[in-house]
Specification:
binds uridine-5'-diphosphate, Rossmann fold, 2 domains, 15 helices, four-stranded parallel sheet
């Protein structure tokens, strides 16, 4: 596998590490359990990390030294791709076994994957995780401008090439498949829709809310709305802040907890801090800054405590190709309110397993929070159904079976 900007063992929740890292790590471990031997190649982004880490029974994370061993924004990595491929080739040529199949993640992993497939004449499976053209459309629609035009154009060309050359594409949601067909001219017959999964043991709802509130220093009386994710404009936290202004007049003790972003300490990330400051200034303008707690990044193994301690989970994204956090909240039986967008509108069945609201509408988000607040038994009913649904459809074991089948079919050809 190639997951170039996303080290599967990275600390999750900063600008450059989120759902893809979790997905690649959990998928590789689930496939490893089924007997696959997986090497995941990523870029060495911290000189304190070892160059090879063993995971599972017979898999490895292998870090390629290219560029400075520090965080580099993925849009600035393009010039390093040839060097990354060259080092990968040197690695493969010096080891005893070649690989039977390649699996690229995102467009950087796909770039290396296409080169590997051509050089070694083996099949390539691709997961995009997000698409540049949809990302740019989202900026145009809501921000009325777009940034990084050159990086976007380079990304589009890379993505189009991957679409043309991959042996198979895995889309995390039907909406991404439609985008690949409509915007990139992909052959629908080449795309399998297989969602991401959730670790059902880690996200276990049998936790005591009162104890966790004490542990996390949350007040017992507060009505807590939780956000978990990277601090990025497209996550729509601005809409949540505006909704909080409205909710403050209706729900006594309403609070918003925002988890994510490396915003303090030695590892502070510049992009995270910029977005944090933008959000804080918006919260001050809306007169709700004292109702919001920015927790910063939380280690993935501790994140379920935050879900269990909250009254509702809000996903206000403007673009969300899949949204692992939706599955995590459903698994934890925390009532979910998500924007009616992309992967979210597929994972969440409106009024069955959660509530959907109009993207970027604080008024609609306000209404949906009030509905859950005033009708806790309806919220609990949806949460019960949500857990059942993730157990049935989103276990990693089940997803690894579907992906193994794709690998096996390609290896038979
Ligand atoms: N996450 C985490 N710590 C944080 C913030 C986020 O472990 O401080 C995890 C979260 O639990 C989820 C992932 O990061 O597993 C975010 O994935 P999602 O698909 O929702 O968003 P993406 O990062 O892909 O945009």
């Amino acid at each position: 596998m190639f997951s170039i900007h996303s080290d599967p063992l990275a600390a999750i929740g900063s600008h450059g590490s989120g759902g893809q890292n979790v997905y690649v790590c959990d998928l590789a471990l689930a496939l490893d359990k089924k007997g696959w031997e997986i090497d995941i190649f990523t870029r060495q982004d911290d000189c304190k990390k070892e160059l090879i880490t063993h995971i599972g029974n017979h898999s490895r994370v292998i870090r390629i030294e290219a560029g400075k061993p520090e965080y580099i924004y993925k849009g600035n990595l393009h010039a390093l791709f040839p060097e990354i491929f060259k080092k990968f080739k040197e690695f493969i040529e010096s080891s005893e076994n070649g690989y039977s199949l390649f699996h690229g993640h995102h467009y950087d992993g796909g770039w290396v994957g296409v080169r590997a497939m051509e050089e070694f004449n083996k099949p390539l499976v691709e997961n995009f995780h997000s698409l540049g053209k949809v990302r740019q459309q989202t900026q145009k629609q809501y921000l009325l401008k777009t940034n990084d035009i050159q990086a976007f154009n380079e990304r589009f060309a890379i993505e189009e090439n991957i679409v043309r050359k991959s042996s198979a594409i895995i889309s995390l949601a039907e909406t991404e498949k439609e985008d690949l067909v409509n915007l990139y001219g992909a052959n629908p017959g080449n795309i399998s829709v297989i969602p991401g999964g959730v670790n059902l043991r880690q996200f276990n709802p049998d936790k005591d809310k009162a104890i966790l509130r004490k542990k996390l220093n949350f007040s017992e009386e507060d009505y807590i709305l939780l956000f978990v994710g990277r601090l990025e404009w497209r996550k729509g936290i601005g809409t949540l802040i505006s909704a909080l202004n409205l909710l403050n007049k209706k729900i006594k003790n309403v609070k918003v907890i925002i988890v994510g972003g490396e915003i303090s300490g030695n590892n502070k990330n510049r992009e995270d801090v910029e977005e944090y400051e933008r959000l804080l200034s918006k919260a001050r303008d809306e007169k709700v800054a004292d109702l919001i707690q920015f927790v910063g990044r939380v280690d993935h193994e501790n994140i379920s405590d935050y879900y269990a301690a909250s009254d509702a989970f809000i996903i206000p994204s403007y673009y969300e190709p899949f949204g692992l956090v939706a599955l995590e909240a459903l698994a934890m039986k925390t009532p979910v309110i998500a924007s009616r967008k992309d992967g979210l509108k597929i994972t969440i069945s409106d009024r069955e397993t959660g509530l959907l609201f109009e993207p970027r509408s604080p008024e609609d988000l306000y209404k949906k929070v009030v509905e859950i607040y005033e009708n806790p038994s309806f919220a609990a009913q949806m949460a019960e159904k949500g857990r059942k649904m993730v157990e049935e459809k989103y276990s990693w074991n089940n997803i690894a079976d579907q992906i193994s089948e794709i690998y096996n079919n390609l290896l038979k050809k």
